[in-house]
Amino acid sequence: MSALPNCPKCNSQYTYEDGTLLICPECSHEWTLEAEGENSEEVKVVRDANGNILNDGDSVTVIKDLKVKGSSSVIKIGTRVKNIRLIDEDHDIDCKIDGFGAMKLKSEFVKKI
């Protein structure tokens, strides 16, 4: 007998199959095994310019002079950024840069140290 997964809604162990559906008798939740795989949390992998995987807390170096929007200053190539935080936006790195303050960067313009 194959082991069926617990109910994703109430975590009941008493699930059963009915054709292609899996059913929970305790909360009446119905789902398919394919849907269960799709519902699993998808983790976005953020990579630097060299293809290295970035994580929260990493230190990176800027690989290109970056203009600061709304200012005449520039973040120079080689600027070190410590303790980055990954976010799910177009600019996927949130950080603080010495002399500039809080900033969002694109991962394609940094490399991991």
From TrEMBL:
Top-level lineage group: Bacteria
Domain Protein YjdM C-terminal: 46-112
InterPro entries xrefs: YjdM (IPR004624), YjdM_C (IPR013988), YjdM_N (IPR013987)
Record domain Protein YjdM N-terminal: where: 4-32
Family, similarity comment: Belongs to the YjdM family.
Protein name, entry field: Protein YjdM
